[in-house]
């Protein structure tokens, strides 16, 4: 049952929302536009606000569904494993030859189901960084870095804390190209369209 849950969580995470929206609503492959990333930020830049919000919402829902699946079929350990599998699926989708996004929205969705107050404060921190810097990627990196400490502060179970450390590390790891561009001063700012 656990194996089935983990495979299903991976497949849920693997649904390439940005690719589907780009291909079937706009007629192009998002991997060939903008940053090439299959996520909400690149959707925002290449397709506009409404598609960007749609992708953000569906990608977050993938994380929520993985947590609910883990809760239905097991305890906290299965919850965090299912959530991680959804993030892995989003980042390395079987439907896109193991390409994918950065995992921010799917991670946020999973955390929303585990520690909503921590997500609330992480989102405020993300928003503050984005407003002052105009870099979405920097906001995501900072929010990911502080999220584990917020989860600890709100006294969530230790498996959730462990999950948040691992998920945050994955988010930061997947942002390596953005970090290089930030350091080089070539990262796109909010409002710049590709």
UniProtKB/TrEMBL annotation:
Functional description taken from the UniProt entry: Catalyzes the transfer of an acyl group from acyl-phosphate (acyl-PO(4)) to glycerol-3-phosphate (G3P) to form lysophosphatidic acid (LPA). This enzyme utilizes acyl-phosphate as fatty acyl donor, but not acyl-CoA or acyl-ACP.
Keyword Lipid metabolism: yes
Any one Gene Ontology BP term: phospholipid biosynthetic process
The keyword Cell membrane is annotated on this UniProt entry: yes
One Pfam family hit: G3P_acyltransf
Pathway(s): Lipid metabolism; phospholipid metabolism
Keywords: Acyltransferase, Cell membrane, Lipid biosynthesis, Lipid metabolism, Membrane, Phospholipid biosynthesis, Phospholipid metabolism, Transferase, Transmembrane, Transmembrane helix
Primary location: membrane
Protein name, per record: Glycerol-3-phosphate acyltransferase
A cellular component annotation (GO) from this entry: plasma membrane
InterPro entries: G3P_acylTferase_PlsY
Catalytic activity entry: an acyl phosphate + sn-glycerol 3-phosphate = a 1-acyl-sn-glycero-3-phosphate + phosphate
Transmembrane residue ranges: 46-70, 77-96, 108-128, 157-173
Record family assignment: Belongs to the PlsY family.
Top EC class of this enzyme: transferase
Membrane topology term: Multi-pass membrane protein
MF-aspect GO terms: acyl-phosphate glycerol-3-phosphate acyltransferase activity
